[in-house]
Amino acid sequence: MPSALVPRYCSLASRCCSRSASRSVRGHRSRTTRRPLDGLLQGVAVLGAAAPGFWIALVLILVFAATLRWLPALGSPTLAGIILPAFVLALPNIAVVSRLIRAATLDALGQAYVTTARGKGRSQRGALLVHALPNALTGVLTAVTLELAYLLTGTVVVETVFAYPGVGRLAVDAALVGDLPLLALAMMVAAVCYLVCNWLADVGMILLDPRIRDNV
Predict the structure, then answer these.
(1) pTM summary value
(2) What is residue 110's DSSP assignment?
(3) In this predicted model, what pLDDT tens digit does every residue of 44-69 receive, in sequence order?
(4) Is the predicted pLDDT of residue 12 greater than 80, yes or no?
(5) Residue 186: how many CA atoms within 13 Å on its side-chain side?
(6) Owning domain of residue 52
(7) What is the pLDDT of residues 171-195, one digit of tens each?
(8) What is the CATH classification number for the domain harbouring 150?
(9) CA distances from 74 to 46, 163, 173, 200 (A)
(10) Closest alpha carbon to 163 in 55, 52, 84
(11) Helix intervals (H) in 77-166
């Protein structure tokens, strides 16, 4: 073969590998979005994010406490008394975070670095776990920490339904009786929780993304 044709054949082979990897990634994305299980999970996530917390709590109390009598209706320090309040608190947050992770991961699968990794022989699972998922988590991490801050402070509805003492219910009771120092203390605790969670988000993004770590 003439030496002048070698670069052309190498370039052609590289483009073919890149197109094949790109088609493989697009096929993986389309198969993921067309799976019945994916549609079912997305429907459950939408329902969990849209349903009011007090409605979910009342339904769970009616089913598991009043009908089946598996769990207590009111919150208590025991493990059985924590299950229902914890589930009601976690369900909307899990629904929101799962949708964010799904959208960010599908977007990352279409990026050039995933196509390059597939062209170099990386398997679909390896490209997803090593390249796509860490880059997708950098955008989701802020939302996760804000949801964590909500779990620590925005629990007044769950605390009221399950008669469980907490910071949210304490703040509402202080506002109703006009106890301004106690209300200010509750607001300060909430502000500290949000600040700490935002700091954890910044640290997590620095650890996940080397580009941010190099710019710090």
Answers:
(1) 0.69
(2) T
(3) 778 877 888 888 889 999 999 889 98
(4) no
(5) 19
(6) 3-215
(7) 888 989 999 999 999 889 888 888 8
(8) 1.10.3720.10
(9) 27, 6, 19, 33
(10) 84
(11) 79-109, 112-119, 124-126, 133-153, 156-161
